[in-house]
TrEMBL record:
<keyword id="KW-0645">Protease</keyword>
<dbReference type="InterPro" id="IPR001948">
    <property type="entry name" value="Peptidase_M18"/>
</dbReference>
<dbReference type="GO" id="GO:0004177">
    <property type="term" value="F:aminopeptidase activity"/>
</dbReference>
<dbReference type="Pfam" id="PF02127">
    <property type="entry name" value="Peptidase_M18"/>
</dbReference>
<keyword id="KW-0862">Zinc</keyword>
<keyword id="KW-0031">Aminopeptidase</keyword>
<keyword id="KW-0378">Hydrolase</keyword>
<dbReference type="GO" id="GO:0008270">
    <property type="term" value="F:zinc ion binding"/>
</dbReference>
<comment type="similarity">
    <text>Belongs to the peptidase M18 family.</text>
</comment>
<protein>
    <recommendedName>
        <fullName>M18 family aminopeptidase</fullName>
        <ecNumber>3.4.11.-</ecNumber>
    </recommendedName>
</protein>
<dbReference type="GO" id="GO:0005737">
    <property type="term" value="C:cytoplasm"/>
</dbReference>
<dbReference type="InterPro" id="IPR023358">
    <property type="entry name" value="Peptidase_M18_dom2"/>
</dbReference>
<dbReference type="GO" id="GO:0006508">
    <property type="term" value="P:proteolysis"/>
</dbReference>
<keyword id="KW-0479">Metal-binding</keyword>
<dbReference type="GO" id="GO:0008237">
    <property type="term" value="F:metallopeptidase activity"/>
</dbReference>
<keyword id="KW-0482">Metalloprotease</keyword>
Amino acid sequence: MGAGERLLAGRDAYIEAFARFVVDAPSSYHAAAAIAARLGEAGFSAHDEAAAWFPLRAGARGFVVRDGAVVAWRAGEEVTATSPVRIMGTHTDSPGFVLKPRPDFTAEGWAQAGVEVYGGPLINSWLDRDLGFAGRVVTRDGAAALVRTGAVARIPQLAIHLDREANSGLTLDRQRHVQPVLAAGADGVSVLELLAAGSAGGAGSAGSGLRASDIAGADVRLFDTQPPERIGARSDLFASPRLDNLSSTFAGLAALLESEPEPGTIAMLAAFDHEELGSETRSGASGPFLAEVLERLRAGLGATAEEAARANAGSWCLSADAGHSVHPNYPEKHDPRVRPLAGRGPMLKLNANQRYASDAHGAALWARLCERAGVPTQEFVSNNTVPCGSTIGPLTATRLGIRTVDVGVPLLSMHSARELAHVDDLHGLARAAGAFFA
């Protein structure tokens, strides 16, 4: 996002900026840093959780980072102790593989790295890709640094000559078959040395002079080094890692930066970590992060418990997470009548068992937002025989008691190392988010 760049008004500029964001955000920690950098450039003030916060005033803009999560806010004019919030909730993590402790080992003359499955990835989609490591490391004195390597790893599939049945049923052992190779021969190969060489400086960081022997802890993931790209016969498809759920996170960020909040309201982006694991962490949606930020903002407005409750009663959360487009090769996996398709707009996500938090009030709100933004929309509901996933929506509604509606862009290949969306849907979600804040 450059100075003066207006992303909500232009689809192509938005997609280009989103692609840059994906490249900048190979891990949740990088995503949080990339969000913070863009907010800082736009005049948002960074807040330290351990420091005192100043009173919230009309027009104030701020954010706070907790590990791989960010909560940011923008106060409209005429804010008071009973001002409602408009929260767009997303998540920064994606399924994949996490580096294990003591990662270096050798097998049959190959240097390898030990990894553990994170969440529910399509494991076969990670085979035979050029992979890097990205995340954060912490030194013995408690300083943290972002780390990122180039393409240094690969999870090699067994050749068809050695597994003649691979095309009729590939079976992967989650321990034995997914450990990446780093080099032929074991001499001098150390994952921690690779990470130390790929460290980045910054506030509170261990800096670029990091040594492998300094590293006391690592939160590091594999990532696909192939950059996002517009593809398809009309160049209207977007192939990319981590569309679930950077597609929503960037939409919320662009909307927060470019939309002036409605007077008397507070616009917020809550980008949580660990959604793919169930969100039960200090930086996840089931944790206290958002509630604590809201309490501190309310305190900055001098709100009593009564006034805070009144504010919550008028508030909304737009829970944005990617969903499923109808798959042309597996149409039976979808509801026979509700058939969302890529290119026909972001979706309202519904589930009778409250795996999504949408209800009739939420459906009406979403319809108004899309109409105001000039964005087409469609519905998603699961086939009754296919289990439905969930989002941060029900968790946020349960924790805060705020009305919540679940939405998102339709994807093919969700949880693959490389997912697929339509550029119109990606931009449409951002425009609807802008209408939500304004």
